[in-house]
Design goal:
Layout (H helix, E strand, L loop, with lengths): L2 E6 L8 E3 L2 H9 L4 E4 L12 H7 L1 H11 L3 E7 L6 H8 L3 E2 L4 E16 L2 E8 L2 E5 L5 E4 L6 E7 L8 E2 L22
Length: 189
């Protein structure tokens, strides 16, 4: 289940609000300029589908976002618990950073946790299958995929070079909860 926990950025132990209803999550994130949507595939996707097949299943929504926001590139990233570089990938994303473009991710399968640092608050967003998150450019954030990552995600970019981060040097990400393994990760062979 998708979830949003909101913390004061000086208190990592107790959230000041928790939302598990998708509409409530979308409203709370929308109030700080973050896009949160649900997408449905327009055709079935078989396990192990190719990047082209995954993109084709969501082409209508992808084209809508590309038209609205000028995204120029789209790809699919997939990570499973047995990936040999999973610890390196996890570490790469866990420190607070910003981008000069929106970070847009749609979760085709599995889950990931985006944590945003906005105006004295920390927004911890657990994204699961069917969730799209659009983090505006310049927003300090970090991403966790857990020690046993499992996700397939569509990424949209305005920069055709892909993911480029500017790390803030702040240690705030170390003080907030990390993502626990996603329940479906244990079912992946």
């Amino acid at each position: 289940m998708s979830r949003l926990r909101i913390y004061d950025d000086t208190r990592h132990d107790t959230p000041i609000a928790v939302h598990e209803d998708h509409d409530a999550i979308a409203r709370a994130l929308g109030a700080v300029g973050v896009r949160f949507e649900r997408w449905e595939a327009n055709q079935p996707i078989a396990p192990g589908a190719s990047q082209d097949e995954v993109i084709a299943a969501y082409r209508t929504d992808i084209d809508r976002l590309m038209g609205e926001n000028g995204y120029k590139a789209v790809d699919v990233i997939s990570l499973k618990p047995d990936h040999p570089d999973r610890a390196t990938f996890r570490q790469k994303f866990q420190n607070e950073h910003t981008h000069s473009e929106d970070e847009v991710r749609f979760f085709v399968a599995g889950a990931g946790q985006f944590t945003l640092h906005i105006k004295g608050k920390v927004y911890e967003v657990l994204c699961e299958k069917g969730d799209l998150i659009g983090v505006p450019d310049g927003t300090p954030h970090w991403f966790d995929m857990s020690e046993s990552p499992y996700f397939v995600a569509i990424r949209l970019f305005t920069n055709t070079e892909g993911w480029v981060a500017a790390f803030t040097g702040e240690d705030i990400a170390e003080r907030f909860p990390r993502m626990n393994p996603h329940p479906s990760a244990s079912a992946v062979s």
